[in-house]
Design brief:
The complex is a heterodimer of chains A (110) and B (116). Chain A is mainly beta and 110 residues long. Chain A contains no helices and 11 strands. The radius of gyration of chain A is 13 Å and the shape is globular. Helices cover 0% and strands 55% of the residues of chain B. In chain B, a hairpin with a 5-residue loop joins strand 4 and strand 5. The N and C termini of chain B lie far apart (37 Å). The mean pLDDT of chain B is 92. Classes of the chains: A mainly beta (110), B mainly beta (116). The interface between A and B is medium-sized, with 22 and 22 residues.
Chain lengths: 110, 116
C-alpha cells in the first residue's frame, strides 16, 4: 500500500531558527496537505497543495508540491515557541482517503 | 470557516458499556466524514469513512459491530463504541470533507476515551 516517509522524526531547535521537514512517497499524489497537531487536540490544516511544483505560503510557513508528485516539503521561518507540536504531511489521490506521514515532533528552545 | 466540533472532549466509562461520540461540521456541509484513532506519539489511523445517508466503509481490521458509525445528516456523524473494553481506550478524532473544497479535510478536536 501507499506509504509516506516523513523526516526528520523530531527536531529540537533554537527560537528564531528556520525549520525544514519533508515527505516522500513511492506513489504519486495529486494533493498534499500539511497539518499541525498540538497535544490533546486534533490536527489543524496549515497548507494545501494541488499542483505539481506549486509553492504556497501561509505566514511564516512555506510548502511545496514536488515536481514528481511524490514529495513535499514544509519550511517554517523564524520559529517561535508556539510552533511546538507535531507536524503531519498527508497525501491524497483523486479524493481518496488521506495517507499520513508518521509526523515530525518540533521542539523550540526559547 | 471549516470548523469541526466533537462531543464529548473526554469520557470515562466502565468496561462493557457503550459510548457515543458526536462529530459536527459547524459551518459547512460535510459530504464525507472520517473517523480516526490515534495512539500516543503515533500518526492517525483511519477507522472508517462515511458518506451521508450511506453505510460506512470500514478499514481492514476494524470491527463494524464494535464501532458503529452513523452519518445521519450533512453536518453530523456519530461513532458508538459498543461494549467498550480497556483496550478501546484511545484518542478518537473525526474529520470532515466538504463538497466545495473537495480535497481539504478538516479535523475535530478529538475525544479522549478511557475505559476502566
Amino acid at each position: 500500500g501507499q506509504q509516506l516517509n516523513q523526516s526528520p522524526q523530531s527536531m529540537f531547535i533554537q527560537e528564531g531558527e528556520d525549520v525544514s521537514m519533508n515527505c516522500t512517497s513511492s506513489s504519486i499524489f495529486n494533493t498534499w496537505l500539511w497539518y499541525k497537531q498540538d497535544p490533546g487536540e486534533g490536527p489543524v490544516l496549515l497548507i494545501a497543495l494541488y499542483k505539481a511544483g506549486e509553492l504556497t505560503s501561509n505566514g511564516r510557513l512555506t510548502a511545496q508540491f514536488g515536481i514528481t508528485r511524490k514529495d513535499s516539503f514544509l519550511n517554517i521561518s523564524a520559529s517561535i515557541p508556539s510552533d511546538v507540536g507535531i507536524y503531519f504531511c498527508a497525501g491524497q489521490l483523486f479524493g481518496n482517503k488521506l495517507v499520513f506521514g508518521a509526523g515530525t515532533i518540533l521542539r523550540v528552545k526559547s | 470557516g471549516a470548523v469541526v466540533s466533537q462531543h464529548p472532549s473526554w469520557v470515562i466509562c466502565k468496561s462493557g458499556t457503550s459510548v457515543k461520540i458526536e462529530c459536527r461540521s459547524l459551518d459547512f456541509q460535510a459530504t464525507t466524514m472520517f473517523w480516526y484513532r490515534q495512539f500516543p506519539k503515533q500518526s492517525l489511523m483511519l477507522m472508517a469513512t462515511s458518506n451521508e445517508g450511506s453505510k460506512a466503509t470500514y478499514e481492514q481490521g476494524v470491527e463494524k459491530d464494535k464501532f458503529l458509525i452513523n452519518h445521519a445528516s450533512l453536518t453530523l456523524s456519530t461513532l458508538t463504541v459498543t461494549s467498550a473494553h480497556p483496550e478501546d481506550s484511545s484518542f478518537y478524532i473525526c474529520s470532515a470533507r466538504s463538497g466545495s473544497k473537495f480535497y481539504e479535510q478538516y479535523f475535530g478536536p478529538g475525544t479522549r476515551l478511557t475505559v476502566t
